[in-house]
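Subject: histidine kinase

B.,
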Amino acid sequence: MTGRLNIVVADTVPTVRDKLAISLPEVVGESSLDVHVSTAGSAETVRNYLDSARVDCTVVSTRMVDESGERLVSTLRTEDTPVVSFMRTDPSQEELEHIGEVVYDAARNTVGSVDHRALFDAVDVGVAVRDADTLSLIDINDKYVDTLGLDEETLCTTFSTDLSAAPDVPDMSASAIRDLFDGERSEKYEFTSSYEHPDGDGIWLHVSLTTATISGERRFISTIEDVTEERTRKRDLERNRELLERTQCISKVGGWELDLETETLEWTDQTKRIHDLPLDSQPTLQEALEFYIPEHRETMKSLVERCRTEGILWEDTFRIVTASGDERWVRTWGEPVIQRGEIVAIRGTVQDITARRSREKELERANEELEALNRIIRHDIRNDMAVIVGWAEYLEDHVDDDGREVLDRILSTGRHTIEITQVARDLIETMSGGVTETRPVSLKETIDRELAVRTEAFSTAEFEVDGDIPDVMVRANPLLASVFGNLFNNAVQHTEDDPVVTVSATEDDHHVRVFVSDNGPGIPDSRKEVVFGKGEHGLDSTGTGLGLYLVNLLVESFGGRVHIEDNEPTGSVVIVELPLASPSS
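Prediction pasted inline below.
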């Protein structure tokens, strides 16, 4: 390359401009070149040179800005004239030689060349060029600056003198870093580095370090990429995976997938635990089917085959024998995986329901026992007591005054026993699920009927209705009669002298409230909640304690609630709130 080479050196510091102006002709390249250097201290002066004369290359400090505040280097790179940037305010001889080589190459390749600097700045990762001996920064691109959030001069000064602060330099000596690339070692060294961003947020960088020969000199090239979001997503994914694993353990639900092309079966860890298999095992389809007891195995095979050929999903319960020899009940579910209209896999879940199955069996046995007890109470005890009461009533006209007191006690005890059997029967039916479904029930008819029965049964008690009972339908079932029957009995039995029971009711758009008041001794605040417990008795009561317990159990099963308040001047008020039946109930 021969001829004249016109260079413009631009820097705000005069001494730097002068040093470069003197040094560049000596280091720029071939002696056959006539190197002419002009200096500029402002963007305007640089523009004047570019507009008025031929300029082969501009050497611009990264500190300089144009009239709009943009970096002059970036602005000039949009022009046709090659631009070489430098950062240091006191360039070493080695850096001057590097600048000279870059200027020579840029000027030589001006016509018909690729703008390597533009490519350097255009890449979407931060790139830094470092001296292979000192690791000091020689050049960086815009992305490097943007990623680290510092200006070029600060980066050059800080990350050249304090290598421990540089996120793109491994935590080792320069010689150790050079050793990474000597001999047959790797051509690239990668690591992840944390960096405290100036905005106060910590970020993670993926760093790749390699070597390159630039203008005959060995350089280290490091690239940095902000991978904070990627690490966050990976951490969240790992946390979600751990949460899913814990959820599977708690719920005893595992997953599986069968690849129909390769016949490869994959089980999650929880599925392996259910079968008592090591977590590093992966059974085949045939081995998996062998866990099912013989009478269930063929059914399972058929379900898999139908899903494979016809795409029919399934959900069913089976018994298995685990690798440890334990018998377990499992509920399996499977569905086809369809891609481009073809069934390519089957996936599903398996849940250990052994404990639930055991509880269901225990509940069935308990219900059978309750039903047996109900039959005994309903047919044996109740019928026998009805006979006793009947004969006692027959004797009323055949005893003298001395025997009447004893006969009255027999009648009272017999009738009370019959009431107890009625309560016990209703309680058993409720607890065993014999009467659980609700339907519209007439509130007024139920209360009127129970009041009529109690008025006849308790001749010494007075029953009053305050106002009108709303003629509405509530959501309940036939055992609603037991609710009010027990409340009326309870109100009379807990009042020693002249019992007065008052019934009233109110309604709103969604509920009806029935108030059953008595003039008895009342219930202390400390016992207003506990009297609804199983086995609790009223004050000085000789009853079983099942009546109010049954009332609360039934009302809650209807979707209502019951509580107790004080009556004035004495006694208690039991308030029963019931949901109104909707038209579609």
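The radius of gyration is 47 Å.

T.
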